[in-house]
Amino acid sequence: MAKILSSCVVDNLIYIVEQHNLLAAMHFGRRPGRSTTDSLHLLAKFVTDSWASQESFVTMFFLDVKAAFLSIVISKLLHNLKKVGILNEYIDWYK
């Protein structure tokens, strides 16, 4: 039951974030209609367009951010959620 409820809260938060444009346009994670494949296609297009222009070069680096989410400061996250207008009911869910 907890998994279903948690999934519903996540879906509601995604809806709120999309309605209020709280994520960067190039953010792909867990957004409707934006898959990993879409991000790879965008990356490939950017690289090929840069090569075709012959006026610029492309430098990329990739980071393993898997462990970064384990070290998040929960109080700061909750403060930021409140600051952008997320309802207290959702913020209390994560306390």
How does the SSE layout of this entry go?
Blueprint (H helix, E strand, L loop, with lengths): L1 H18 L16 H18 L20 H10 L4 H6 L2
Describe the fold and architecture.
It is built from 4 helices and no strands. It has helices spanning 2-19, 36-53, 74-83, 88-93. The protein folds into 2 domains: 1-59, no CATH class; 63-95, no CATH class. By secondary structure, it is mostly helical. The chain starts with a helix and ends with a helix.
In brief:
With about 100 residues, the protein is mainly alpha-helical.
Q: Give the structural class.
A: mainly alpha
The low-confidence parts are none
Please bin the fraction of helical residues: 40-55%
Strand % is under 5%
List the helices and strands in order: HHHH
Alpha carbon gap, first and last residue: 19 Å
Query: Tally of extended strands?
Result: 0
Radius of gyration: 18 Å
> Could you give a short account of the major beta sheet?
none
Number of continuous helical runs: 4
Tally the structural domains.
2
Overall pLDDT? 81
What characteristic shape results from the CA principal axes? elongated
Which terms would index this structure?
95 residues; mainly alpha; 2 domains; 55% helix
